[in-house]
Write a structure and sequence with these properties.
Layout lengths: L1 H11 L4 H17 L1 H4 L2 H9 L6 H14 L2 H13 L5 H17 L2 H18 L4 H12 L9 H10 L3 H25 L1 H4 L10 H26 L5 H19 L5 H34 L2 H12 L3 H16 L4 H18 L4 H14 L8 H10 L3 H24 L1 H4 L1 H5 L5
């Protein structure tokens, strides 16, 4: 009880989530036996970070930030408009397609939301879209970024749970594309009701080809990352380091938009983002050990099994729990704290570790666009000046569609594991 009370109180006082987790964990250790247990704290912090695959995270963040700084966002948007601009609401459709293309560069929903919030949202407003609807479309598409690899959440989950990161990368491709497709369907079905502008000019094949050729340097980034990992040539950490080298080459020599000053600021920004994530991971090691010592995972699992007596009910309850907790808590912290508790329960319900992982990650990604603490909503609100509640209302159809995709892949095991099986990560 003291741990829960401490954690909630610290969060309400505005303490950063990482430090709130750490202090709550220390309170738990103190309740077990005072100084002797508190002495375990430093070793648990070190063990929480002493996992080699975690090195991939700062490399992926750095590579994506370098590529984003070079201005490739505009080029990817041009390619997306050339491909789907011929439909009514073409800019909204382009937003979704651009999110797919952008996903292979950053793997970050907030980076996607910030980039398109500054570029596509103003463009959509100028072309007759309501600003709240433009923000909603951008928020709905932003979660494609951390679903289609590379994804920091996949690196964390795979490292903590001993699951193949390459297998998770493979498993994320189809759900990410499905989210894009279902959101485009929502846009098409609601085009008349939302009063979306008519179709733009249909790009000629020659224009599509020339735009595609100009986008090749950017599009090669996911090819390098996924091709190397799925082909078994490099590990995720090695692929991330290679991606940084490629991003530096593209930024400095092809696009010529990367100076030493720019690189310094990018490195500082990467250090800040990585530091926040690693603080959460490090302090979660203390809380996780205390929970294991008190056998809390077993107690939670027993409670869920008492409440849900079938495979469908167990999986549905896990998903609903993740969506609910994701509305009020940082998703990285949720993954670190709840995965050791809920994943064995999901596996007991018949899920493969990779299958459970991609469902966990997709559920948490969806929570990035749900109030009251959806990070993408805050980013778009701050960038565009639109009120969060107005964006949230326009998001409802997209949210319903994405939750439907989540449940579809949760219960359609063959679809969820199609690509991991094809690449030999699952038997």
């Amino acid at each position: 009880m003291i741990v829960a009370v401490s954690f909630v109180a610290l969060i309400l006082l505005g303490m950063p989530i990482g430090f709130a987790i750490g202090l709550a964990g220390l309170a738990g250790l103190a309740s077990l036996g005072g100084g002797e247990f508190l002495a375990l704290g430093p070793s648990k912090i070190f063990n929480g970070l002493n996992i080699f695959p975690f090195l991939a995270m700062p490399f992926f963040i750095l590579a994506g930030d370098i590529m984003n700084h070079t201005g490739i966002t505009d080029q990817l948007v041009k390619l997306a408009r050339a491909l789907v601009g011929r439909f009514r609401g073409g800019l909204a459709h382009s937003n979704m397609v651009a999110s797919v293309l952008f996903a292979g560069l950053t793997g970050s929903a907030t980076a996607d939301a910030a980039a398109f919030g500054r570029t596509l949202v103003p463009a959509m407003v100028r072309n007759g879209y309501r600003r709240d609807y433009a923000c909603a479309v951008t928020a709905a598409g932003s979660i494609i970024g951390p679903t289609i690899p590379p994804s920091g959440l996949m690196v964390i989950y795979g490292s903590l749970m001993g699951v193949s990161i390459g297998g998770l990368f493979a498993a994320g491709i189809l759900p990410g594309l499905a989210v894009c497709a279902v959101c485009m369907l929502v846009i098409a079905l609601g085009a008349a009701r939302q009063g979306l502008p008519p179709a733009e000019h249909a790009a000629a094949p020659r224009e599509i080809l020339s735009t595609f050729i100009a986008s090749v340097p950017a599009l090669m980034m996911p090819v390098i990352i996924l091709g190397g990992i799925l082909g078994g040539v490099v590990t995720p950490t090695e692929a991330a380091a290679i991606a940084v080298a490629y991003a530096l080459f593209v930024g400095a020599f092809l696009y010529r938009r990367l100076s030493w000053r720019d690189l310094f600021h990018i490195l500082v920004r990467t250090a800040r983002i990585t530091g926040v994530i690693f603080v959460i991971i490090a302090f979660a090691g203390i809380l996780g050990w205390w929970m294991s010592f008190e056998r809390i995972p077993q107690a939670v699992a027993a409670s869920i099994l008492d409440f849900a007596d079938s495979r469908v009910a167990v999986i549905s309850l896990i998903i609903l729990l993740l969506l609910a907790v994701g509305m009020i808590m940082d998703i990285t912290a949720i993954l670190i704290i709840l995965a050791p508790i809920l994943v064995p329960l999901a596996e007991g319900a018949g899920m493969e570790p990779i299958h459970a992982g991609i469902i966990f990650i997709l559920a948490l990604n969806i929570s990035l666009m749900t109030p009251p603490v959806g990070a993408c909503l805050f980013v778009l609100s701050s960038v565009s000046g639109e009120k969060i509640e107005r964006i949230a209302r326009k998001l409802l159809p997209f949210l319903a569609a994405e939750v439907a995709i989540l449940f579809l892949f949760a219960f359609w095991k063959d679809a969820a594991l199609l690509l991991p099986r094809a690449f030999g990560f699952v038997q």
